[in-house]
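This part of the workshop introduces the protein records we will be handling. A record pairs a protein's sequence with a compact description of its fold. Comparing a sequence with its tokens is the quickest way to learn the format. To make this concrete, we reproduce a full record directly below:
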Amino acid sequence: MNAFTFTGSGKEYFKIWIVNIVLIIITLGIYYPWAKVRNKRYFYANTNLENRNFEYHATGKQLLVGYLIAMGVLIAYIIFNTVAPIFGLIIIIVFALSLPWIIVRSMLFNMKMTSFSNVRFGFIGTTRESFRVYFSVPISIYVALIVLNGIILAIFKDSIISFFLAIVLFFAFLQALSHLKKIKTKFLVSNIKYGQSSFNADVNVKPFLLILLKTIGIAIITLIMTFIIVGTLGYTIFGVEYFLELFKATQDPTRTEEVGIVALPILTFIYIILIIASIFITAYKTTKDREYIFKNTTLGEKIKFSSTLEPLAFG
């Protein structure tokens, strides 16, 4: 099995990145489409398989129209949301309804503008299918969960049964998220073509659910360990007197402003550790999803894929 290789370097990309930033600032953002094209062409050209590389064929001029429309919508939303919030809400609703169409058009364009070894990619997904995946199914699941939650609270309010049913509902929510991950993956991957061959993602709900449960477990363990580490470091560095003073401050209503100042070192520790932990947790979820999707994706009938990216390397 041959692996993709990347031949670019941080030094080369830094030159492209800094020039892009300067030109975007000078042109008040107008240069952004050209900057995006330069970035993609650099990464595509340096991604190789058996001495063959990807190519990105779009131009800044082609991206400019979509970029100006997006900026126009954003500016319109900001203005209307300030002077007439109802119109701002209408813009959000229209955008949400248009999102499935936007996703399909984006995939069509990006695949058409991408080639490998002089063979173009393509996308055959439809707006109707996209609407089901990104709008009707998520809305249906959300409404169903809200209704079930309301029924549980109405019938079993303030009882032990409601607690256990809430746990069941939580797992139903995780199951729903995993189902959405499955249908989105199949929509985005199985509708991609490479020349005359098609990709196929044969994925199921259960593996996505297991990955999600493991991620939640890691998050809970990380949270517990964070407080243990912070408590230990705080006790070692500041001593027990610090925590006694912090406790006294929280118990005195007249010292509410002082609490934040007294607790600042501990809060800083917690903030730093949680940032590091969140990066790793996100990396774990992303790499495990990627590993499962790649393992179960084929191109045509013979070509298979795998991902060896690890959470620490990705984070």
Summary: Residues 152 and 162 are 6 Å apart (CA to CA). Residues 256-295 form the longest helix (40 residues). The two ends are 25 Å apart (CA to CA). The chain has a mean pLDDT of 86.
